[in-house]
Design goal:
The chain is an alpha+beta fold. The chain is built from 6 helices and 13 strands. Helix content is 17%, strand content 28%. Strands 2, 4, 5, 8, 9, 10 and 12 form a 7-stranded antiparallel sheet that branches. It has a 6-stranded antiparallel sheet with strand order 1-13-3-11-7-6.
């Protein structure tokens, strides 16, 4: 892929090999479709039950009961956030960004679902509203709400610069989960996982296929809203990169808080809805 690695002459049929049409790895025609009409009708009558403000360069945990709605917004200025989700009753079931990416693409939006890890592999949450859906894919190949970035972390920072920065998203999420569970950070850290980069605008360069970021288009008044398909424990970090227009893991970037709000549907508003079951694979693995 990278020019420096092209040590070999192309074969005579190189153009023909490149011209082979791609095939979608995971066709999703048979996936159960979320009933967005039902969800939106329930949301219209839902009442707010709580909120939490995430300070800049920090993270906080929150719980969302099954059948409730979660809204994430940047009320004071452009700010991206790193989101972890777990089954509130079993932290071993957590958001699986890789499978979500394989099923829905590198960036997610309205109607897409956030899938959980093996062996459960079921929808944890469904995106019901995204006020940035107008953005699409820009001329650089950038789009919003990615499931390709892993989260800024102190290990990569140390590898690249030799420093010890403690307010990157991985550390923020670790501290927040440790506080919520009442355990040491080392114990909480094993549960921290790859994220949904809320509001982050990212893509891959065409020349070298490198992951890039650019200024998030989010502004006060924008939000991403999700429906909790199961009871969720969430943790959200207000990234130390602010809108990620220049760098992350930095005390120099202008950062703003993020707001998490929880909404409960009215009684009977979700008639006929049931939480998704665990994945039906028998786990025999051929034995």
């Amino acid at each position: 892929m990278k020019p420096a690695s092209r040590f070999h002459r192309p074969p005579p049929d190189a153009d023909a090999r490149r011209a082979v049409a791609p095939v979608i790895c995971y066709p999703t025609d048979t996936l159960p479709r979320p009933d967005l009409g039902l969800y939106r009708a329930a949301r219209a009558e839902a009442g707010k039950t709580g909120e939490i403000l995430i300070p800049p360069r920090e993270a906080r945990c929150f719980e969302v009961p099954a059948g409730h709605f979660l809204r994430i917004s940047a009320p004071r200025g452009p700010q991206v956030g790193d989101l972890n989700l777990w089954n509130a009753a079993d932290l071993d079931e957590r958001f699986y960004s890789g499978k979500t990416r394989a099923l829905h693409g590198s960036h997610v939006g309205t109607g897409d679902r956030l899938w959980s890890s093996f062996p459960a592999l079921r929808p944890m949450a469904t995106i019901t509203t995204d006020t940035l859906d107008w953005y699409g894919i820009d001329e650089f190949g950038g789009a919003v709400h990615d499931v390709i970035g892993t989260r800024c972390d102190p290990y990569t920072g140390n590898l690249l610069s030799g420093g010890h920065y403690h307010h990157c998203c991985h550390s923020n999420l670790t501290r927040a989960l440790a506080d919520h569970l009442g355990v040491a950070p080392a114990r909480a850290e094993r549960h921290v996982h790859d994220v949904l980069n809320v509001f982050m605008c990212t893509g891959f360069t065409r020349d070298e296929g490198r992951y890039f970021m650019k200024a998030s288009p989010v502004r006060p008044g924008d939000y991403l809203e999700l429906f909790a398909e199961i009871g969720l424990l969430g943790a959200l970090s207000a990234c130390p990169g602010g809108d990620c227009s220049a760098r992350h893991s930095s005390d120099d970037a202008t950062c703003f808080p993020l707001l998490v709000e929880i909404f409960a549907p009215a009684p009977g508003a979700l008639a006929g809805w049931t939480a998704p079951p665990l994945n039906g694979y028998d786990r025999s693995h051929g034995r």
